[in-house]
Amino acid sequence: MKTAYFLPVLLLSVWCKAQGPYPYTEKGKWGLTDKNKSMLLKPEFDTIDVFRNGYARVESNKKVGLINTNGAVLVPPSYTNITNAFQDFTAIARNIKGYQIIDIRSDKPIGGLFTDVLPERSSYAKGSYYFVNKDGKMGIFDAQVGKMQNGKAPYNQITGFNDPALDQYALITVGDTYGVVDVTSGREILKPEYDDIEEVYVGNTVYIAAKKGDDKVFYYDASFRNASPGNVQDKPASATPAEGEVLNKKAKDMYIYKMGNGKWRVVLENRETSQYKGLDSTDLNGYTSLEYLSYYPNDKRFPTKIKAVKDGKTGVIDMSGKVLLPFIYDDVHFREDMVGRYAFIETYLEGKKGVVVAATMQELKKPVLKAILDEDHERNALLIEMPNGQKGYMDKNTGEIFIPGVRD
């Protein structure tokens, strides 16, 4: 049985106090406030995105710009799109001429580069290197000096390696042959004369296997020295899940059966095979309806949560009938992110919504909200809407709302 997923995950959360700054709306426009609800940026934009690398995209009249965490407008909304912005003051922007790499500090293209194909940022952190397409060929653009490596774009394709140990290098192709280039200098480490090049592993140690023909394989370590690694595999050993791990996790779950005359049976079952095996069972009486909310077998305090309706009011009970939330609500719903890192119960009362943290079953916010719109893992906060239409963020640990003028 599946629980309802929350809105798309932005970034994996950490259990800490919410981190600002916080976008909020006023009269339909977005501005920026800090944790003290002081205005950093007056509400003037149609949207403000999540901050990454210290920058956030803003949109006005279908044009895109950039702001920083202090609320300063670094790049006024003038581009069709800005796909990425980085801590080295470079960003990938697009206008009618095509994609360009801009200097955020001056809002000017670096090196006069324009391309119809979205550039790819190298993962090598010590520099500003991009894989760009110029006139159907690819090369490496060094944004620190504003030039192509070696002054040319000689390859059919350039892509980074998957393993972080190889982030200084990139895979290149010329026609049907493969090679490797050092992104910092443009020097070809392996000439493009191989039939295939791939990452292989011995344990968690990465090697490069360069193949020629059907029977010749040359191995190199992460510094491209000749190596003889022995038995290799496609992925690190630790990346392979234990056999049957996912299946067994899904097999055991809680099921609710209506017996008639206000009687219900709640059963833990293992449905790994066609022969259902009951592991535990409880009979409950006196409820108008029971509905599955969640089952977490590793939660020692509240492994089972059931939505229960009694005398016209809704609450939450566990499998034994113990009341986890009192019968005072009009309705409740269970919400969690896509990886189960944060879950809560949305409570409804008189047309307004509240939040109860599923891990503790403690009320984070009484039903005073109009809506819970999204979850921001980077801020450790929920995007909420107030009854007057204002939108902003609420701390997932304290329930504090970061909208100027709103009193908690």
As laid out across the biggest beta sheet, the strand order is: 4-5-6-7
Question: Mean pLDDT, rounded to whole units?
Answer: 88
Q: In oligomeric terms, what are we looking at? A: single chain
Distance between the termini: 36 Å
Structural class: mainly beta
What integer value in Å does the Rg equal?
Answer: 28 Å
Helix content: under 10%
Question: What percent of residues are in strands?
Answer: over 45%
Number of helices: 1
Quick one: biggest sheet?
Answer: 4 strands, antiparallel
Count all strands and give the number.
37
Uncertain regions spanning at least 5 consecutive residues? 1-17, 240-249
What is the overall shape?
flat
Protein architecture, described:
Helix content is 2%, strand content 52%. It is mainly beta. The strands form ten sheets. Strands 4-5-6-7 form a four-stranded antiparallel β-sheet, with no helix packed on it. A four-stranded antiparallel β-sheet has the order 8-9-10-11, with no helix packed on it. It is flat. The relative contact order is 0.12. The model is unreliable at 1-17 and 240-249 (pLDDT under 50).
